[in-house]
Specification:
Elements: H1 4-19, E1 22-27, H2 46-49, H3 52-55, H4 58-63, H5 65-81, H6 86-94, E2 99-104, H7 110-114, E3 119-121, E4 124-131, E5 137-139, E6 157-161, H8 170-182, E7 185-189, H9 200-207, E8 211-215, E9 228-230, H10 234-242
Parallel strand pairs: 1-2, 1-7, 2-3, 7-8, 8-9
Antiparallel strand pairs: 4-5, 4-6
Bound molecules: 2'-O-acetyl adenosine-5-diphosphoribose.
2'-O-acetyl adenosine-5-diphosphoribose binds near residues 29, 33, 162, 195 and 217.
Length: about 240
């Protein structure tokens, strides 16, 4: 239940959303939590059960490619079974009336399945493999065998994700910076905001005078800096924000 001052802030946030045309959104694993996809750092999070150094670095892949692939295949199967939730759909709906760019750290592809079209995937996409030689991308089939090989040049392919120690795809990150730089309103949903450079995008928008809204049931390093914080799940937060 919102108290009077939170209700006033919510009304202000709704009004800002209504009057803003240029909107930049940053999503993290939390937005897909209600779709049954585990986050990384929270309760039941992947990094509580697995070590990133063993599974999500170029060194881990060089050491044991099949082990790394098995882990990504397991996560791919979770993603295949998952469906977008109402928060994904609400963002796709908002894109129809706003100049909205959706920047996601997620590799699950659920934003696209929900109908969003202007998506910048900062950390890649788990449903694709990338050729180690010619960089060609192939869509993974449900029962793909390990390791997958490139459909074009037949070299071994790796998961199409960004690992720790690797640079983000520069062109995509450049577009994300531009979107947050130009945004009148920035919305940050379901990220612990501890992984750079994604976490700094919201600050960039704030420095340029954007109105900053966060939706997250837990506080993050961004929380003290935002104009309005909705401390709830992504689906409920979007519902409150859109007044539906
Ligand atoms: P984290 O697991 O670090 O953070 C998930 C956030 O979602 C937390 O702040 C939770 O409080 C919040 N959360 C949990 N349930 C939620 C819900 N139902 N609705 C809204 N929020 C909820 O995930 P990310 O911030 O996405 O990178 O992590 C960033 C990057 O770190 C990932 O892309 C991944 C990881 O290591 C790579 O693998 C390169």
């Amino acid at each position: 239940m919102l108290n009077l001052s939170s209700l006033k802030k919510l009304q202000e946030a709704r009004a800002k959303l209504h009057t803003s045309q240029k909107i930049a959104v940053l999503t993290g694993a939390g937005i897909s939590q209600e779709s049954g996809i585990p986050t990384f750092r929270g309760q039941g999070g992947l990094w509580r059960e697995y070590r990133a150094e063993d599974l999500a670095t170029p060194e881990a892949y060089a050491r044991d490619p099949l082990l790394v692939w098995e882990w990504y295949q397991m996560r791919f199967h979770t993603v295949l079974r998952a469906e977008p939730n109402s928060a994904h759909y609400a963002l796709a709906e908002l894109e129809k009336t706003k100049d909205l760019i959706l920047v996601s750290q997620n590799v699950d592809g659920l934003h696209k399945r929900a109908g969003s079209s202007r998506i910048l995937e900062l950390h890649g996409n788990i449903t694709l493999s990338r050729c180690e030689r010619c960089l060609h991308l192939d869509e993974l089939k449900e029962n793909f065998s390990l390791p997958p090989f490139c459909s074009r040049c037949h070299a071994r392919a790796r998961p199409n994700v960004v690992w720790f120690g690797e640079a983000l795809p520069q062109a995509i990150f450049g577009q994300a910076v531009e979107a947050f730089h130009n945004a009148e309103l920035a919305l940050v949903i379901g990220t612990s905001a501890v992984v750079e450079p994604a976490a700094s995008l919201a600050l960039l928008a704030k420095e340029q005078g954007a109105y900053l809204i966060e939706i997250n049931p837990e506080p993050t390093p961004l929380s003290p800096l935002v104009n309005f914080s909705l401390m709830t799940t992504a689906s409920q937060g979007m519902q409150l924000l859109l007044g539906k």
